[in-house]
Amino acid sequence: MNSRDSDRQRFFTRRAALLAGGQLGLLTALVGRMYYLQVVESERYQTLAEENRINMRLLSPSRGRILDRFGVPVAVNQQNYRVLIKSENTPDVPAVLDRLAMIISIDADEKARILKEIRRKKKFVPVTVREFLEWEDVARLEVNAPDLPGVTIDVGERRFYPNGFAAAHILGYVGAPRREDLTGDPLLELPGFRIGRSGIERAFDKPLRGSAGASQLEVNAVGRVIRELDRQEGDSGRDVVLTMDMELQRTSMRRLGEESGAIVVMDVETGGVIVQASTPSFDPNAFTEGLSNAQWRSLADNERAPLRNKAIAGEYAPGSTFKMIVALAALEEGVVSAQSSFFCPGHIEVGDGKFHCWRRQGHGHVDLSRGIAESCDVYFYEIARKVGIDKISKMAMRFGLGEDLGLDVPGERSGLIPTKAWKRAVIGQPWVLGETLVAGIGQGFVLTTPLQLATMTARMVNGGNPVLPHLARDVVTRGEMAERQDKDFTPIGVNPRHLKLVMDAMTKVTQDPSGTAFAARIRQPGMSMAGKTGTAQVRRISQRERDDGVIKNWDLDWKYRDHALFVGYGPIEKPRYAISVVVEHGGGGSSVAAPIARDVMTATLDRDPARLAPGADVAGLRGPNPQGS
Amino acid sequence: MAQFGTAAPTFRQKLLRLNWELVLLIVLTASIGFAMLYSAANGSFDPWASRQISRFAVGVALMLMVALVDIRLWLRGSYFIYGACLMLLAAVELKGSIGMGAQRWLDLGFFQLQPSEVMKITVILALARYFHGFDVDEAGRLRNLWIPVLIVVAPIALVLRQPDLGTAMVVAMVGGSMFWLGGARLWQFGVVAAGVAAAVPVAWQFLHTYQKQRIFTFLNPENDPLGSGYHILQSKIALGSGGLFGKGFLEGTQSHLNFLPEKQTDFIFTMLAEEFGLIGGVGLIALYGLLIAYGVFIAFRCRSQFARLLAMGLSVNFFLYVFINIAMVMGILPVVGVPLPLISYGGTAMLTVLIGFGLIMSCWLHRDMFINRRGGLA
Lengths: 629, 378
What we know:
The complex is a heterodimer of chains A (629) and B (378).
Chain A (H helix, E strand, L loop, with lengths): L2 H38 L1 H10 L1 E7 L6 E2 L5 E13 L7 H11 L4 H13 L6 E4 L4 H9 L7 E10 L7 H4 L2 E2 L19 E2 L2 H5 L1 H5 L3 E7 L5 E8 L6 E4 L3 H11 L4 E7 L5 E7 L4 H6 L3 H8 L9 H4 L9 H11 L7 E4 L2 E4 L2 E4 L7 E4 H6 L3 H11 L1 H10 L21 H7 L6 H8 L9 H12 L10 E6 L2 E2 L14 H16 L18 E7 L6 H6 L14 E8 L6 E7 L5 H18 L2 H4 L17
Helix pairs in contact in A: 9-22, 13-15, 13-16, 15-18
Chain B lengths: L10 H7 L2 H21 L8 H20 L2 H24 L2 E3 L2 E6 L4 E2 L1 H18 L3 H4 L6 H16 L3 H18 L3 H21 L2 H11 L10 H13 L10 H4 L11 H34 L3 H25 L17 H19 L13
Antiparallel strand pairs in B: 1-2, 2-3
């Protein structure tokens, strides 16, 4: 403690106070500057913030195309003009929407949806007001741009199916991702982005989708792009090449016409599906734009189920087309030979049941060949009784019936091949003999899909090779093709002589005047088809009705009429294509289904790539099997 | 009254008398920083906030340790610490890794030390020690001033060679303040000011192109909005568009759309002002004002010249961080790369600031202690 030290303290205090005062002054100046920037000049900077904005924008990759076996595009991308609104740049969103509504009509529902979406998304994320604008609308919007702050027009891509209805079930359609589809991938949140919802579009969504690019843009207050600062291109989606032939698909759809039904044509060597028609159909382009509620209801409630792919999800009693399976089961078990014959008086009685042949007056003495060619029911009651249901079912399954065949398009149904164990487990009752008889003519519990019937036929005529059906052949990246690797199948091991017997009988169906499809034979030189008709009863015919005379199909309500079926292959000498036709409630297999099959098979043989361009390397086509069959 | 004695307080007494409210203010300020770093990463603790939190925890522990050390130890060690740090700074010249085009880091393997940051504190320590030994009259004599001038000029020369204009300016200003508090005469400041004015044209020749560029763009940022004026202009736009109440936490469009450069380090104040507006910005400045006032208050209360000078010098140093950074992002000062203390992402600055507060607290704990000129008790 001395006076010098207290001098020092006074000096320090004085100067420190001055210094602290200076600091306070400077901090106050900072506050003043802040006030100037954030309050006085705030508006100017808010405008600047919006005017001079550099924005990262994701670039949607082009969705890959889908091509048919000849490389014809069946799903492509078109330019899509759309109006977007960014709420951050729009002082009064409802007012701007009202002004927009005077140019492109926006109804109340749409307006509510847009406002809801704006509330949900971040202020700087653009919301789609309307897509698929006509060019005139675009021009009118451009002219009115000054009155529409925050409204922008951009060009995106829109999925387009040039063939519309014709291949809707195969190709499927695309739609906006639903909430549960969002995986955090920002690509999915882009306005207007579409993902595959069904068919090939869904099954191959990943490769078709590609990966997003990014563009760094400088945009002004109205959202107009001033310039692009940086751009990283994404990878466009890869193309998918199908085994389908679009031309044939169209022919098949046309041939089914107003009927409700399905056609499958398959390459018997590879399992490649060439036609997969299902009627009635729908326009997948409507899904891209988004269906209205009414449109959706009318599709979903339609009695003829246009949305269902009947070729793979329609389950029908196979009727007489099942008889080859029963015959093969009997031959393999040795309970009959080619020569064994039975007498058909028009019906047989088993236990206290009476089982009718379709021909009331009967067929007389019938062997295997006639049994198939003329489709004698009594013959098959007899051999089914001898071989038993479990043996028949086992044979059916070896030919691909009753199981999901793993087609690369979602929605396949497995049908049903009954066994004794199945009935006990599922229905809880023991199997009765009468049910074996009914199954012997493909009725009762037996259910199959057209795809399974075509696969069955293919396996019968390719030497017992258990091919599996598939629609996509390759996924292509920029012209490079990764060939599909076919599995090596182990033959199903049915005696080739027995297969030959069945094929000869199927030949008689179309080639012998007594055959059920003789009238529907192919007459063109150099082409031929063998097959088997089937007529599946949908209702039970009572004894009283039989006594009074069976009601003719055409007098029944549509939904009680018989299903008409046909399975076949061609050419007869060197089978290459298998076909199955189902016409729901169409009537008789020989009168309705067989002529359709004939026409489609003729067209198929006509478009055989080997015939079209001998020696040419055509996408999707494999050369003739070197091993022969 | 507390003991008017000269006896050193015990460890227990120190712990009880520690300025816990000051610690709380520091934690509060740092927490605002964590929130901003969380926002800078678009609502994520990674990569900045989480690491900043752990660094802060280490820094606070270090701060308390520094606070509890007897102030006489700091006084006796001040020249040694200064000398060690000066050598470290020189080492950066010889073996420094390149960062942002300028050599500023010393890679210690686990930690990248920026000696120029630490230098600021050691200059204050050394000057406080020096002026502690003189009466006001003696201190103002020219023959007693050439040593402290050397203490200030040596690090400035090194820092300028690196080159780091911001740190050089801060060291010069902190040094100047110490002279002012220690007893330098008014006319001496006048002479220095005139000398600097005369030297500017000469010094200009030695500046790097990017430094000249920064000064040019500072003078007229609108000239080249996408070139070098970009930072200042975007910062002003982001700040100005925040308005009175801001755009809301995590809602700052300019910062989140990456308009704002270095939003986690030098321009973090802009982001805060964009998201929390004038209210938030002024609030933070007030908080800083409180922290600075705390240091000034402690300086007034100390009985030894060393503690007074140390506390005041450190508080000036802290003030300079705050002022230069905020003035820089608002376009009042050129962009010189000074972080916002306790908030900007970065290890050395955080550590330096916390050690500074540790020393201020040490001054408080030993405020009633008379210390003789050699560092013993009076």
